[in-house]
Fold each of these.
Amino acid sequence: MASIIYKNITKRYADGTKAVDNLDLEIREGEFMIVVGPSGCGKTTALRMAAGLEDITDGQLLIGDKVVNDLEPRDRDIAMVFQNYALYPHMTIFENIAFPLQNRNMPAAEIKERVRAAARTLGLEEHLDRRPKHLSGGQRQRVAMGRAIVRRPKAFLMDEPLSNLDAKLRVQMRAEITRMQRDLGITTLYVTHDQVEAMTMGHRIAVMRKGVLQQVGEPVELYERPANLFVASFIGSPAMNLVQGRIAETEGRIVCEIGSQEIPLADGLAGAENLAGYRNRKVVVGIRPEHLLDPQKTDPSLPGLAARTRLVELLPPEQLVHLELDAEPVLSTSALELAADVDKTSAQDLNLQAKNHRVNVVARLPSGRRYAEGETTRWAIDVAHLHFFDADTGEVLR
Ligand SMILES: Nc1ncnc2c1ncn2[C@@H]1O[C@H](COP(=O)(O)OP(=O)(O)O)[C@@H](O)[C@H]1O
Ligand SMILES: [Mg+2]
């Protein structure tokens, strides 16, 4: 077992593409680290540099306390599990798992012991004499894992290993890989574009965009304290609601204007003093869907926003209430770029909302209560859970 450390790592491909830009990241010994980000953000490149399959343009890569930039892949003692796992169809499961040990002059008894131990961890003991074609997709994926485990490497590298599986199997394998990693305690770097995988599996998550690391933290930390608009939008489903706001002072109180409405900020908001420095400036206000509170249940004295119910999606035990706010969507260049990054269609939607001076937001509530479509109600807001971002840089304001 060992840590993996990226020290100011940059990768520039021969055609000039800068795929990874000055990456600083430490995967601690025994840690399960997820690298997540949209397609093309440099995840695979980062992983392949650790594996030794891609040259490093700049910076240092350490495994344990050893710089490995110039070490051949086979000398790095790490195992890689790919998206497209290739099993040998003519070999049994035992032989498939044992394969990486065969050309190492390892005594047959030890090979047998290691394959059995791996098969036990993965629940494949009964299938060792079978051939791959008799196994389900999930079992085959586990055989591919088994092949990585038997080597007892210092670390695992996994590149979207679940993306070829159907939805149900993916959920199951997600839990299995998580359990396996916890049982074995092997340092693991796992790459995915799926934020749900990221949130459920890793000890920590590193969010990347366009080759640049955005934030590293535990899942809850990224969810509750995103460092910028990108992380805020990328983590969480349905995504955080974003609305154009303006910080102002009325009668000595700091407020946030949203459209023609006003939310007083001083009460219950940590860092309200910092926001005071943004007086008379535009900000981006972020509201998670669960922080728009049930209008029929909450204290009417709480700050709130009037919104029209467009559509209710029942999904017991929850419902998503789609609302329309009389306000401006976030339309800075960076926000549009971001919308395009996170969801290819939403930039167009945003322009339409802007034209109508409306913003679509989503509230997430327990199912049960009924919200009439077309009706306007006042939705209470838990001010302590609001997020504010600089409208130009997208950085969070704290
Ligand atoms: N061999 C290559 N030559 C040139 N550009 C590449 C090569 N491989 C990847 N890229 C580019 O580098 C960027 C990062 O790619 P990649 O690491 O595959 O991202 P991800 O795994 O996050 O989808 C993309 O812009 C991609 O087109
Ligand atoms: Mg990739």
Amino acid sequence: MPVVSVSMPTELIERLDAHAAEHDYTGRSEVVREGARALLTEFDDDRLEDSSLAGVISVFYDFGTRHVERRVTELRHEHNDHIASNDHSHVDDYCVDLFVLEADLEDISTFVGKLRAIEDVEAVDYSLVPLESMNQLQDA
Ligand SMILES: [Zn+2]
């Protein structure tokens, strides 16, 4: 297996090591491999492919982090065709952008991935709702 070197903050390394110890992993490499697999397969869901989805996405970052605000605004413009709404709020010491998207799984996956890739974003969470199944529930 090839060996790669990855730079990461000391705190994250410590958390990886603690996670490895608590869950009986052989070491931090196994935790990183598992995390990479989970990330790459996160949006692999045959049930949701080719469905029209509503995605609710929240993005947390430190208050007034200009480069994050700028990038979030760029992404809002790039993905404008799928964004039904966007709201910017302040919670504790954080800026929170809340997006509602109407899109397919691939578009939502791309949008979430780009948000996560912004340096200094603290958290990106989302929920997905298949619109067809909601219609079926209403008709029943
Ligand atoms: Zn703000």
